[in-house]
């Protein structure tokens, strides 16, 4: 029997992923600024909450909740029914709750404790972390590869599907060095900007890897149209 999957609700993209992201996977969503990483991940959570009633949580470690919601509402993601199943936790909320935890430990230990309690209490099934880069800085990782390994193991132990937003673009050149998260993640979705001419830039999306999934590996053009994301075949041209 095949794995249950979490749909992205990106028109045309789920079909290329054999139905979506497998349940329980930890997926790195990586790309440069301006590629709509946060909007994409929020859209996935929003649509799962609205259409399937899946309990989702979006943790933003940098942007405040009000600013995040203002942006997402401007894109049309403002149906109150979705927010019955979609919780947004910003750094202010997290700091306030961490201050009540009377346990000794590092910032990361307390963050994990808070997130673990929240996930269990709310029955969260889809977790978005925006972003893993900010988490690394706040947790003051001394040995990033080892610390990230334990972070991914902790996420798997939560029993949730996770989308981890990465601010650093991936280097797929023969001599390029991939970030540690790329090796630890069960899947990688990469977003990029491609110049199709001297004046036009096209957003693109690509599934680099997704374990246990027969998926397309080429780029699609990513478009936000009429309140939802959709993909089409990428337009060639430019450098």
Structural account:
It is a single chain. With 239 residues, the chain is of the alpha/beta class. It has one domain: Rossmann fold (3-Layer(aba) Sandwich). Helix content is 34%, strand content 26%. The protein has helices spanning 13-16, 37-52, 65-74, 91-98, 107-122, 132-139, 144-158, 180-184, and strands spanning 5-6, 21-22, 26-31, 56-60, 86-90, 126-130, 161-166, 187-195, 201-210, 220-225, 228-233. The strands form 2 sheets. It has a 9-stranded mixed β-sheet, sandwiched between helices. The mean pLDDT is 91.
**Largest sheet at a glance?**
9 strands, mixed
Number of helices: 8
Radius of gyration: 18 Å
End-to-end Cα distance, whole Å, is: 43 Å
Strand order of the largest sheet: 5-4-6-7-3-8-9-10-11
> Quick one: CATH superfamily?
P-loop containing nucleotide triphosphate hydrolases
Would you report the number of β strands?
A: 11
Task: Label this structure with key terms.
about 240 residues, globular, Rossmann fold, about 25% strand, about 35% helix, alpha/beta, 8 helices, nine-stranded mixed β-sheet
Strand and helix layout:
Elements (H helix, E strand, L loop, with lengths): L4 E2 L6 H4 L4 E2 L3 E6 L5 H16 L3 E5 L4 H10 L11 E5 H8 L8 H16 L3 E5 L1 H8 L4 H15 L2 E6 L13 H5 L2 E9 L5 E10 L9 E6 L2 E6 L6
Parallel strand pairs: 3-7, 3-8, 4-5, 4-6, 6-7
Antiparallel strand pairs: 1-2, 8-9, 9-10, 10-11
């Amino acid at each position: 029997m095949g794995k249950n999957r979490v749909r992205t609700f990106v028109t045309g993209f789920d079909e290329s992923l054999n139905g979506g992201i497998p349940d329980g996977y930890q997926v790195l969503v990586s790309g440069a600024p301006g590629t709509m990483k946060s909007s994409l991940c929020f859209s996935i959570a929003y649509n799962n909450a609205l259409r399937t009633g899946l309990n989702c949580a979006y943790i933003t470690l940098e942007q405040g909740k009000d600013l995040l919601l203002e942006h997402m509402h401007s894109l049309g993601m403002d149906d109150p029914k979705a927010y019955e199943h979609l919780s947004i936790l910003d750094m202010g909320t997290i700091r306030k709750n961490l201050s009540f935890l009377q346990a000794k430990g590092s910032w990361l230990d307390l963050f994990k404790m808070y997130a673990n309690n929240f996930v269990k209490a709310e029955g969260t099934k889809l977790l978005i972390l925006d972003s893993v880069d900010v988490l690394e800085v706040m947790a003051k990782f001394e040995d990033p590869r080892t610390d990230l390994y334990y972070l991914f193991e902790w996420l798997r132990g939560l029993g949730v599907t996770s989308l981890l937003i990465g601010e650093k673009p991936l280097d797929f050149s023969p001599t390029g060095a991939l970030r540690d998260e790329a090796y630890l993640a069960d899947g990688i979705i990469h977003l990029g900007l491609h110049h199709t001419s001297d004046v036009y830039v096209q957003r693109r999306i690509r599934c680099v890897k997704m374990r246990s999934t027969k998926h397309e590996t080429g780029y699609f053009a990513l478009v936000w149209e009429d309140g939802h994301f959709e993909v089409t075949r990428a337009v060639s041209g430019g450098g």
